[in-house]
Amino acid sequence: MGTSMVEYLQQDMQCEGLLECLHGLKQLDRECFRVLVESDEPLTIDEIADVVDRERSTAYRSIQRLLQAGFIQKEQVNYDQGGYYHVYHPRDPKRIADEMQRMLNDWYAKMGQLIQEFEDKYDQRVETSIEN
Fold first, then answer.
1. CA-to-CA distance for 35 and 20, rounded, in angstroms?
2. What HEC string does 87-113 produce?
3. Burial, 48: exposed, middle or buried (Cβ in 10 Å; 0-12, 13-18, 19+)?
4. For the segment 120-130, what is each residue's pLDDT rounded down to a tens digit?
5. Section 55-81 average pLDDT
6. Tell me: the pLDDT tens digits for 78-112?
7. Distance set, CA 35 to CA 29, 32, 44 (Å)
């Protein structure tokens, strides 16, 4: 089972903890993201795998999670003689932060709705049991 909200709130969380908390990303995902942020140019999967010292397939899965979460972008580079390869680079941190803020706002609204449903459901039961 995952970490509870109470456990997250009790932790001394760093900003990178948002990647895990909001997106379910793993330590390797954070490492791959850091590598891309620190690079002056877009990188291939093989280059990322070399830096994080992991197999290509492991780095690829991590990059796919980062893509799905919207933290990085993929670009196709074409060879002059035909064929292509992909490179990856981080998205604008301001846009990522804005998206995380929207996600947090949506989550907050949903939790408020669930809390209200909880109160409505159990308040009726308590009132009924008091009357009896």
1. 17
2. EEEECCHHHHHHHHHHHHHHHHHHHHH
3. buried
4. 888 776 656 56
5. 95
6. 999 999 999 999 998 888 888 888 888 888 898 88
7. 10, 5, 11
